[in-house]
Amino acid sequence: MNIAIIPARGGSKRIPRKNIKNFYGKPLIAYSIEAAKKSGCFDRIIVSTDDSEIATTALEYGAEVPFIRPNNISDDFATTLDVINHAVKFCIESEMDVNYVCCIYATAPFLLPEDLIKGLTYLKNDQSLNYAFSATNFSFPIQRAIKLTDNKVEMFQPEHLNTRSQDLEEAYHDAGQFYWGKKDAFLEAKPFFDEKSVIVKLPRDRVQDIDTPEDWDFAEKLYSVINK
Question: How do residues 98-108 score in pLDDT, each as one tens digit?
């Protein structure tokens, strides 16, 4: 059995009620639920929330809310692994025969069903892997990054001051859309970023964090352009 778990707590501070705020005509969480359903990958699609309004919205769009998330993993300090670990244990205690689990963020309007299918395929084809997750490449070489010390410029890696950009190794970052994993990998809190993970590479124009009002505005503009 493959389980999708969508974490969606109610206490978002920088964008109040973010997970169910209207994004281009639908609650934001609806996009994650619909992508999960369209992928055909899942036997159960579960939303983990501490909020009754989010629960109602999740049910309206076809997800399940079989439990209310406990307060001790609903604050600003709870990690994704804490939330997924709790949900997986609930599924096991409910006698679900869980094989693969996918954490899908509720803030992923650019998620496509084919990305989820690809991640599951990677895991099934290589049993040595623990996880497959979405990622994209940096647009600028991270080896040439700079920082400010007392408002003065300093390179993080000054040894690459004169290195040609085409000679620098390409770098990637987590796209913040989904994490496929084996049940035991989540239960044992195995790290996401190590040699037993593989990425589903996404184009940069389908990756956007939505943490601030400015992020939200940009994401809606990007979505409108993509979907014209």
Answer: 999 999 999 99
